[in-house]
Predict the 3D structure of the following.
Amino acid sequence: EAGVTQFPSHSVIEKGQTVTLRCDPISGHDNLYWYRRVMGKEIKFLLHFVKESKQDESGMPNNRFLAERTGGTYSTLKVQPAELEDSGVYFCASSQEWVRPPEGPYFGPGTRLTVT
Amino acid sequence: GNSVTQMEGPVTLSEEAFLTINCTYTATGYPSLFWYVQYPGEGLQLLLKATKADDKGSNKGFEATYRKETTSFHLEKGSVQVSDSAVYFCALSDKNRGSTLGRLYFGRGTQLTVWP
């Protein structure tokens, strides 16, 4: 079974540009999460989808970040315009809890974003 | 609120030594608890988890027991190997509308290095 996949693995952009990160969860997982780890800091929650609905977006830092999950499958996270402090590793995770025991959350390999 | 306090690293051990990484938590409800591991150059991998008090999670020789009375979830392994060298993260997941897999709150991570 394929795990959580993320694209791209690395992205280097200039301040003010736009970047879109993609996450494909494990097939059948209704829950999809975005996290990020800024250099030297903790891994922080950004938001949580249940299918196509935003269950919790309290971790989104500001309105430059937009996440979507149309159709309840893959998700995108867009940063527009990017700022220097957005640099870090962005992780996606998925889980399926309506089984016993609950599955996951399982994380993808992450996208390393560098804003110069 | 919810938070995780994890033993500061780095931890350096000789092969076959006993490992303990302490983790305590603060939570408003009855969270699920997790240990994730990040090997060099890779993403986060779910190592083990426990979803209710007194449950023991185990995987690859690692164990952790959910202790509600001490709000702890310490990670242990009886005999570490060089291949266990990685960063270990303790995390909790709060409940969300009755679910058990809401957002994760992470500890800062503990770097483990095992020498032959």
Remarks:
- DSSP finds no helices and eleven strands in chain A.
- Chain A has a mean pLDDT of 92.
